[in-house]
Amino acid sequence: MFLIIIIILLTLPGIYLGRYLLGSYFNHITIYTVIWGGMLFFYHLGFIKYYPLSFETWTYIIVAYLSLILGTITVLVGRNIFNNHDSNNTNDSPVNYEFLYSKKIKYVIIIYSVIGLFSGIQHWMILLKMYGTIPNILLHGNEIYRMRVEQGIPGLIPYIQSFSYVALLLVGMYAAAKKSLPWFVILPFIGVILKQLANFSRAGVLLGFVMFISSYYLTKNIYSIGTQNDFKKKKNKNLVLIVVILSLLIGSAVFIRAFRGTVESFSGSSRALNSLHSNLLISPSIYLYMSAHVGVFNKYLKLGEEESEVIGKNTFLPVYNFLSKFGIVKHFRQYQRGYYIPVWTNTGTYLRELYADFGIAGILIVPYLLGMLVTVLLNLADKKKSIIYLSLSVYLLIIIIFSFLVMVSRLGVYYFSLIITLPTLAMLVKKTNINTDNITLQNK
Predict the structure, then answer these.
(1) In this structure, how many other beta carbons lie within 10 angstroms of the beta carbon of residue 218?
(2) Which tens digit of pLDDT belongs to each residue from 172-182?
(3) % of the chain beyond a pLDDT of 90
């Protein structure tokens, strides 16, 4: 109980520190503080009798957290110094977010959503060929999940679902600009959910939700565009869409849990946790996902039985596996070794990957670079009104949000969606600027 009180007392100042430094509660320091403070709180709550964290584990957790803050402060101090020296300079860089008001972005969102939807449909068609009927697919959910983890589903077109994530990023920006949720916000969510239902996986659904929320709030914070009354005027419409989206997300998570055969009885779990065995929303497995990962990192450090074969293998896993297709390096497994803590699970926070890839230097330097780069990109997005810088900050923020679970750059869709995002935004900005320039010339 004493340790829980300490965690709470240290978490609260971190929340306000992010707000003080960055001017909004939706910032990488506050988010990191809440996520890690919450995970450590639940870990020590005692619903599962996890093994105690070692002094080494605590040291790395604290060092990574302080490095993230220090990277942010470095940029803020440097910005103040250079702004003072350049106070007479004017910023005449073009504002390039006008496309958020154009019809072009709506068309791109819908097209990308349809492509992402095709990925989910194709996946289900393959499963139907393998199992015959949808009830048979559901009955073999656990088998399909294991097949995907161990060898993959044959015949799938890889990474097409990346278009759904790009659509979610774009619709988040669009909704922030309009101060209203458009009807087509549901389309990319349906694409993501349909695909993840076929995978019997919840991680992709969480990634889609994080992509949308991050894009929406960073756009809202950086560009004070539209008016608050715009959102209030469409309150009923927005409320309906929010309810529909949340219902889809929660419903898909419950569906996957029910048919994947998720274990809800863990050794070392308390009577209070076991009583939630049949609860649809709050279950032992949900508690496990909210708390266990730091324990895996702790056990990984204690045993020290894994050696990194190449530098950056985990952080840049999709890159290495792409190169493996040409025989340059060998192919590495997507899924990691599990540890007993006293529950078998394999995700050990992003600190596990950083330590495996770069040693202690990774835990010290990478969070520092993350804090620094997110702050730099948001500053540039604000100063230059650049949607490109804003989108890059969204992708870095996603790494921070998923840091409690895994290094999200292990996922191929992370890189592929980024590769699609940058040229898409560049095209939209260029087209909009050309049209704006033509209108200006005609008016002259």
Answers:
(1) 26
(2) 999 888 888 88
(3) 47
Task: Name the burial class of residue 199, with classes exposed (0-12), middle (13-18) and buried (19+) by CB atoms within 10 angstroms of its CB.
Answer: buried
* Mean per-residue pLDDT, 19-39: 94
Which residues have CB under 8 Å from 352's CB, separation 6+?
296, 297, 300, 314, 336
Alpha carbons 259 and 138: distance in angstroms, whole number: 6
CA distance 353 to 308: 9
DSSP 288-338: HHHHTHHHHHHHHHHH-----SSTTTTTTHHHHHHHHTTTSS----SSPPP
Which residue has 């520092």 as its token pair?
368
Q: What letter does residue 345 receive in the DSSP assignment?
A: E
Dihedral of CA atoms 64, 70, 71, 77 in degrees, nearest 10, equals 170
Alpha-helix runs per DSSP H in 44-199: 55-85, 103-131, 134-139, 141-150, 162-178, 186-199
| pLDDT value at 42 more than 70 | yes
* Structure-block tokens of residue 119: 């990925």
d(CA 441, CA 444): 5
Question: Tell me: the pLDDT tens digits for 254-300?
Answer: 777 777 655 555 666 666 666 655 555 566 778 888 899 999 999 99
Of 66, 87, 28, residue with least CA distance to 375: 28
DSSP, res 245: H
- Of 431, 417, 440, residue with least CA distance to 170: 417
Report CA 290 to chain centroid distance, whole Å: 15
Q: Using an 8 Å Cβ cutoff, are 171 and 184 in contact?
A: yes
